[in-house]
Amino acid sequence: MEVVFVVTFKELKYHWFSDLYRYEESMKVSMAKVFYRQFFFAGYHFMFWLRLCSYLKQKGKLCRPLYFLALVILQRYKYKYGIGISPSTKIGKGFYIGHFGGIVVNSNATIGENCVIMQGVTIGASNRGATKGVPTIGNNVYIGAGAKIIGNVRVGNYAAIGANAVVTKDVPDHAVVGGIPAKIISLEGSEGYISFPYPSEVLMKQAGLLPKTKEQ
């Protein structure tokens, strides 16, 4: 799994569109909708500014004033919504914050595509021992309310982390884990918990990364 920072405005639009789709499953996306739908979804509102900060941070000195302005606005929403995620965190497309409050993600962590995190989630570092480091979260992962994922562990694709689980070891693809420490409960994965995974080709065309067909 490779998650990279956006470097072009079209890529930024694609990430905005993909995030918004997770909230309302609408193919009728536009920049106007990207802006005004922020005020209907707190999680998307936060991610709009986080994505913008991440983009501006990559643009160098010319965009430095705009980056700091966006960072001040993002900081305000961090405190308002209780979401501690840094623009330095690599987060894939289609990111969904189910409920806000008490969310903390280490700036060096990596989160894949189409992931869901709920309130009270911590994705944090371990500073010593065999798991020293930060987590890597795969694609299509559901992380339930109050769950903690700590240290240099990998959460596989399509995994589901139960509410209040404490994960300190790798989680296989399609596993459902729960408890303290977390143990495998089943291999049914996150199916049913990942609503509206983004349809990449359609949204890439909407963002201008692929040529639009006549039907669109």
From TrEMBL:
<dbReference type="GO" id="GO:0016746">
    <property type="term" value="F:acyltransferase activity"/>
</dbReference>
<dbReference type="InterPro" id="IPR018357">
    <property type="entry name" value="Hexapep_transf_CS"/>
</dbReference>
<keyword id="KW-0012">Acyltransferase</keyword>
<keyword id="KW-0808">Transferase</keyword>
<dbReference type="InterPro" id="IPR011004">
    <property type="entry name" value="Trimer_LpxA-like_sf"/>
</dbReference>
<dbReference type="InterPro" id="IPR001451">
    <property type="entry name" value="Hexapep"/>
</dbReference>
<keyword id="KW-0677">Repeat</keyword>
<comment type="similarity">
    <text>Belongs to the transferase hexapeptide repeat family.</text>
</comment>
<protein>
    <submittedName>
        <fullName>Serine acetyltransferase</fullName>
    </submittedName>
</protein>
<dbReference type="InterPro" id="IPR045304">
    <property type="entry name" value="LbH_SAT"/>
</dbReference>
<dbReference type="Pfam" id="PF00132">
    <property type="entry name" value="Hexapep"/>
</dbReference>
